[in-house]
Specification:
The protein has 364 residues and is α+β, with helices and mostly antiparallel strands. The chain folds into two domains: 4-136 and 158-173, no CATH class; 181-358, no CATH class. 38% of the residues lie in helices and 20% in strands. It has an eight-stranded antiparallel sheet with strand order 3-1-2-4-5-6-9-8, with helices on both faces. Strands 7-14-13-10 form a four-stranded mixed sheet. Strand 4 and strand 5 (108-114) form a beta hairpin. Helix 7 crosses helix 12.
């Protein structure tokens, strides 16, 4: 017999799944909806609309009730997976809220496990292909190293369980604090945490660089970038400065809480990333639309911030940090790299310069 805890209310918009929550009772459905992260104004508005629709009992306009959160052909074996998750947690009555990434082709799902009363028990990432399996493995490695360092200023997720050898690898994390807020336009507040996770700055030669995973990704994807940018990266003077980088330092992964700074999502982390990668990643994310709509102007802004003297060493550090982000297909970095100018041409002015005062924050 079908039980309430195995029945889901699945929201689909524009033909793609968004979130699936327990169908009943209403309090548990609302607890599930509260797990949808309001990282942007659009997502916050959607979460509020779904909550109001559920309370007003009109969410059937965008949601269906089903015994499974997945359509036929999409289910990777969820019933077996959640049974194992309940066993690992020691909570046989745990219920699940499933959230899909904005890009379904990312081949993963996120699962929030809740108690029957709606209290968070765990957050899980499930990889559905080899690419996601490798990223989860990299995240586990990075978090293990950071936990051993006993960070004083920065909190990172604690892993409760993981099985990377399963057909569909997964990682189960402790619930995040309920008071987390995205940290936006606050590099001064974030910088000490980035310095803490970076650890010692090292210098490596070309042979060592070419063994780094991020460099291999850039080498595979670099053909899409401008010849001028590729040439400047290739002709970097060695040794180069590297350190531990988070690799995706955007406000959607960095939060402020009563206990300090939380940094999540370490799938792109590297122990030997260009030392200014996280600062650049945060800066580009803070200027997201400028990067996409006015990349030439944003390149000038990056030069002003990261290489104000247009000296070779600073330009090379900026280029390497961009290369790291381009290797993981960051759309903002790809736009900036497409307008790259070598140090020889660096003094050429943009047709649409960005004034320093218009930037979210200035260089420390």
């Amino acid at each position: 017999m079908q039980t309430e805890r195995n029945t889901y209310r699945v929201v689909r918009l524009a033909g793609r799944p968004i979130i699936a929550t327990p169908a009943k009772p209403l309090a548990l459905r609302l607890a599930g909806l509260s797990q949808y992260p309001p990282n942007t104004k659009k997502r916050a508005l959607l979460r509020s609309a779904l909550r109001l629709a559920a309370i007003g009992r009109i969410d059937r306009l965008v949601a269906r009730t089903s015994a499974t959160p997945f359509e036929s052909g999409e289910d990777f074996g969820f019933p077996e997976w959640i049974s194992e998750a309940r066993r690992l947690l020691g909570v046989p009555a745990a219920v699940a809220t499933i959230i899909w990434p904005q890009l379904v082709r990312r081949k993963r799902v996120y699962v929030h496990l809740l108690s029957p009363a709606g209290a968070p028990l765990a957050f899980c990432k499930i990889g559905l292909d080899a690419v996601n399996a490798a990223r989860l493995r990299n995240e586990i490695d990075a978090l293990t190293v950071l936990r051993e360092r006993q960070l004083a200023l920065t909190s990172v997720p604690r892993v409760l369980h993981h099985d990377l050898a399963a057909q569909h690898p997964f990682v189960m994390y402790e619930p995040f604090p309920s008071d987390l807020k995205p940290l936006k336009h606050s590099w001064g507040e974030l910088a000490p945490s980035v310095a803490e996770i970076s650890g010692d700055i090292r210098r490596i030669n070309r042979a060592e660089l070419e063994r780094c995973d991020w460099w291999l990704r850039f080498a595979r994807e670099g053909w899409r970038l401008s010849a001028e940018f590729r040439s400047d990266v290739e002709h970097t003077v060695f040794p180069v400065a590297v350190c531990r980088v988070q690799g995706d330092a955007t406000p959607s992964n960095i939060f402020r809480s009563r206990d300090g700074i939380w940094i999540c999502d370490w799938e792109h982390s590297s122990a030997s990333g260009p030392r200014r990668t996280d600062e650049l990643s945060y800066y580009l994310a803070a200027n997201h639309y400028q990067c996409l709509l006015r990349p030439a102007a944003m390149l000038d802004a990056c030069l002003l911030r990261f290489a104000p003297a247009r000296d070779r060493a600073s330009m090379e550090e900026l280029a390497l940090a961009l290369a790291f982000l381009c290797g993981r297909n960051d759309p903002r970095a790809l736009k900036i790299a497409s307008r790259w100018r070598s140090p020889i041409c660096a003094h050429r002015q943009s047709a649409f310069p960005i004034e320093p005062a218009s930037l979210p924050y200035r260089a420390p």
